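Lab manual, section 2.4: Encoding a predicted structure.

Procedure: take the sequence of the chain (388 residues), apply the prediction step described in section 2.3, and record the output as structure tokens. A sample record is shown.
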Amino acid sequence: MTRAVAAQRGSLAGRALKVRSAVRQMDGALLVSVALLSVIGALLVWSSTRTWAAGAPTGLINKHLLNLGIGWVLFAVVATADVRKLQAYAPLAYLAALVTLGLVLTPLGATINGSHSWILLGGGFAFQPSETAKPALILMLAMLLHRPVEGTDRPRGLDVVLALVATAIPITLMLLQPDLGTTMVFCVILVGVLVFSGLRKRWLALLGLAAAGGAVAVWAMDVLKPYQVARFTAFVNPEVDPRGVGYNSTQALIAIGSGELFGKGLFRGGQTMGRFVPEQHTDFIFTVAGEEFGFVGSIAVVILLGVVLLRGLRIARMCEDRFGMMVAVGVVIWLAFQTFINIGMTIGIMPITGLPLPFVSYGGTATFANMIAIGMLQAIHIRTRSFR
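Recorded output:
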């Protein structure tokens, strides 16, 4: 009995030492930037929901903090995992993503805020499979494309075809919802990973033509719902329906502009307290930063996001393993594109797509996916350092 207890204590001590060692080897700048963004995001979510959420003024922020806590646990699990395990479990993660995406199209699927992309779990919680499908797709693409043709750094033709099929299946499932924003993210991830895998230019040209043809087909076949078409119409001309589809864009610009240089102060934003900007705690969270923290605060958020992306690129560049490099590239492309689209739609240079701002917007599944992505970057960084 004593030996068993001693062995258990030794095992726990060994795990603790392993975790401590992994933390020391992590990319500090990346870790601190994500932590600061999480804190800023929590404050912005609190400010934008404290006057109306159930259990106000702390109802929704408590739920957000719970999601953040779970997200950081997932981060720790993934960051301390061996990259080879991530590669081995890539097909399983991808299969699980397809199953959950398929379940959305069954009676288990639910519509929240006009988007039929959720599965209700009960107790006020919901699961959005399209978010966790992002890291799963990245792992699958990296697994398929990391082996080059012998003597070259280019992927094999069969692997490229398999990568296209692996991306087309979840895209089809998401278009049936339809989820245009995540579909765009998947397409950008695919193109980015293929480019960095060394794919020949003629393949890329063919992919470009296929993507253009697919976009035309989606439009011609009326796959998009009326509200999605209206969003593009409002982007081209916000004044076409200022009280309808153009309302979000107009109010977002007013909120950001009213913050001027240093902002009105936390919890003091008139547009935020008056709930003039719809979905301000999720898709339009950047407007809260603009109004309450001003131009300086908004730039600080952008800089922190930039640090995350630059550290991710550095991890990809320093990685000597093609699988790890492609995973890191895929994560950076995903986060960069989503950041650009989210901030772009709040300042009127991009159409509204319903993509949250990474690490800042309120969310459950999105928060989990983002933290898993950072965990993958840290796992790659730790493995790279251990071989130096």
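Check your result against the sample. Residues 26-386 form one domain.
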